[in-house]
Amino acid sequence: MSQPVQTDFNSIAQHFRIEGQFVDARPYGFGHINDTYAARFRKVDGRNQRYILQRINHNVFKRPEDVMHNMELVTEHMRAKITDDGGDAARETVTLIPTVDGKSYCKSSAGDYWRVCGFIEGARTYLKAEHLDHYYHAAKAFGRFLAMLSDFPTGQLYETIPDFHHTPKRFLAFIEAVEKDAHNRAKSVRPEIEFVLQRADETGVLIRLLEAGAMPERVIHNDAKLDNVMIDIESGEGICVIDLDTVMPGLAVLDFGDSVRSAANPAVEDEQDLSKVFVDIKIFERLAHGFLDEVRYFLSPIELDHLAFGAKLITLEQSIRFLTDHINGDVYYKIDRENHNLDRCRTQIKMVRDMEAKLEQMSEIVERYR
């Protein structure tokens, strides 16, 4: 049996303006798309300094050059804002380390795209918060991220994944999958299919507002999960939003919604015991409070009006995506067991149902903090 090819981190590092000699590199973080490593380099004074080395998944991001174009522009914009505010840009935004020829990435002889970022010491990410304050500070960090980019021209950025949160197009892809039924799975998921069909009109609510000019397009993160915020170990504050591959034009309410979808459910995303799946209102309140502390000053009334609905919509969208992939034969999301994507879909559906039952309560919380 052939052995897997080992990555020559030292050769990769030599493409970048890194201070010191390469020591070692270890897998780092919770991400499932890119390959991320914490690499140590020994400086001339004998001290070690860490950097983040990342191999960009060019199967997901078909044009890594566009991803890096976006990252360069938004981090430069935020760095200027943070510096003008008297902050520490090295800790409060991603720092891209340039290559020896001044680019933000290199392409290896194997055809892989690599980037290097500064390592933020004294901070960490969490898959699950250890206390309620983590939710507040993570949401506040995402709100601040949107605030810093609120004046950034959306036309300067590429869509790194086209139609990523275009829910009506996700719905159409779902309908196509059901009609083709390539793996003869549709008949076994009729209740889930009916659940989605009953909410067909809701999939277009936000897009219709955008197309009518009633809701503005902004630069958003597009993957506003708890583990994409670096939390300062001493203060507990969210200091830096990371994983900027999907930063592109979108709707601010969906960033808030995704933070709720991914954080307010105390169960895991593929939980099979649906009695454990629900929207924890205490967590929702901390997320809303933190987010609104940063965005209430610039979001429009119609955006604020739709924050609770945005949480429901993006959860519905994710249930559609999981169900579509299950019907298509599990071609997009990695699975570890039979019906894994169906389990994920059912978890999202349970969340949508609970949000529908609690939507008035969620809206009242938003109203309290807006």
Fold and architecture overview:
With 370 residues, the protein is α+β, with helices and mostly antiparallel strands. It is 43% helix and 13% strand. The chain has a five-stranded antiparallel sheet with strand order 1-2-3-5-4. The N and C termini lie far apart (60 Å). Residues 1-5 have low confidence and may be disordered.
What is the CATH H-level superfamily of the largest domain? Aminoglycoside phosphotransferase (APH), C-terminal lobe
* Total of DSSP H or I helical runs spanning 4+ residues: 12
Strand order of the largest sheet: 1-2-3-5-4
Structural class: alpha+beta
- Just name the CATH architecture of the largest domain: Alpha-Beta Complex
Strand content: 5-15%
Can you identify the CATH class of the largest domain? Alpha Beta
Order of helices and strands: HEEEHHEEEHHHHEEEEHHHHH
- Major beta sheet summary: 5 strands, antiparallel
Q: How many discrete structural domains?
A: 2
Could you list the spans in which at least 5 consecutive residues all have pLDDT below 50? Answer: 1-5
Count every beta strand, where a strand is a DSSP E run of 2 or more residues: 10
What is the fold named in CATH at topology level of the largest domain?
Aminoglycoside 3'-phosphotransferase, Chain: A, domain 2
Tell me the helix content: 40-55%
Shape: globular
Radius of gyration over alpha carbons?
A: 21 Å
* Intertermini distance: 60 Å
Mean pLDDT: 94
